[in-house]
Amino acid sequence: MIKKIMYECIDVGSEYCPCYLAETNDCITCSRLQGKSFCDCNWGGVCIYQRYFWNGEKVNPSRETYKAKILDKKMVGDNLIIFKISVMKTLARQLKQPGSYIFIRNINKPQFFDMPMSIMYSNEYNGEIHVAVQILGSKTKSLLSLNDEILVRGPYWNGLQGLKELKTLKASNALIVARGVALAPAVLVLKYLIKNNNKVSLIIDKGKIDEVFINEYISDLNLVTIESDITTEKGTLLIRELIKNNNYELCYSGGSDRQHCEVKKLLTELSPKTRFAISNNNEICCGEGICGACSIKIGKKVVKSCKTQIDTSYIVEKGEK
Ligand code: FES
């Protein structure tokens, strides 16, 4: 048995598939729509090539941009804003998945001000979503003046890697390590894991944000929380002890790539079988697999990380390709 890396499009089988990548023979999943003359995909749903063909070789409509009402805007510390936004109930429902995000923009700015923002909270009954925006550069600063309306495009789902590992975990132990603004997307991860009867320990590191701004979103969840600065020796020791003593089946790291590496190093040493999921930190610009801003190289393969789930758990028989 050997391990093989599989690449799966996050949009496959959704109402957004087939997308523009099918038109240019760049489909992430379908070998026919990659220009090959044979079928060699691992997708178990309705054939993408067939859908494309029946569509008259046309792509499905892509996500639209909506004008949405800002219900509330709250400043946390010096550089974090929590926007509460009213959206269609369908969109709110689609944004409940861990890893969900939207693009938001100042209503008076052109499209290149679009910025991806992780969903921290979503309520499909009243059509409300919450996002936490760290004010850093021109795009995020352009949101400071907004009080009434904001542009929203979505839903998008590839805000984390390791979705399969996370979604298949049931009645097990899980460790979440989240730092700074990455605490926001960790909320949906926590809720999903707890819904599946997992026992979750959460290490909270405020990072550069002054407050633990997710408290009101996690206060009613049954989980163990520990606050710590994970960049210190004491923090590393804490993670080390927790991994050693708790038999975690899954660990999720929300934070910088450096943090992912540090956590992965500890897992490899102390609990190599623990599944690992991480926040997707790549630069996301279009979110549609077109612009290439999010591209990463895995071996010789260029992967559009805004749309691609990289599955490293796939086992094949020796000799199989
Ligand atoms: S963000 Fe444009 S291709 Fe991924």
Short synopsis of the structure:
By secondary structure, this protein is of the alpha+beta class. The chain has helices at residues 20-23, 48-54, 89-94, 138-141, 163-167, 183-195, 215-218, 233-246, 257-270, and strands at residues 2-9, 65-76, 80-86, 101-105, 115-118, 121-123, 128-134, 149-156, 160-161, 173-179, 199-205, 224-227, 250-254, 275-279, 295-298, 301-304, 308-316.
Task: Give your account of this protein's structure.
This protein has 321 residues and is α+β, with helices and mostly antiparallel strands. The chain folds into 3 domains: 2-61 and 288-316, no CATH class; 65-156, Elongation Factor Tu (Ef-tu), domain 3; 160-279, 3-Layer(aba) Sandwich (Rossmann fold), CATH 3.40.50.80. The protein has 9 helices and 17 strands. It has helices spanning 20-23, 48-54, 89-94, 138-141, 163-167, 183-195, 215-218, 233-246, 257-270, and strands at 2-9, 65-76, 80-86, 101-105, 115-118, 121-123, 128-134, 149-156, 160-161, 173-179, 199-205, 224-227, 250-254, 275-279, 295-298, 301-304, 308-316. The strands form 4 sheets. It has a 7-stranded antiparallel sheet with strand order 5-4-8-2-3-7-6. A 6-stranded mixed sheet has the order 9-14-13-10-11-12, with helices on both faces. The protein has a two-stranded antiparallel ribbon with strand order 1-17. Strand 15 and strand 16 form a beta hairpin. It is globular. The termini are close together. The relative contact order is 0.15. The mean pLDDT is 94. The structure holds FE2/S2 (inorganic) cluster.
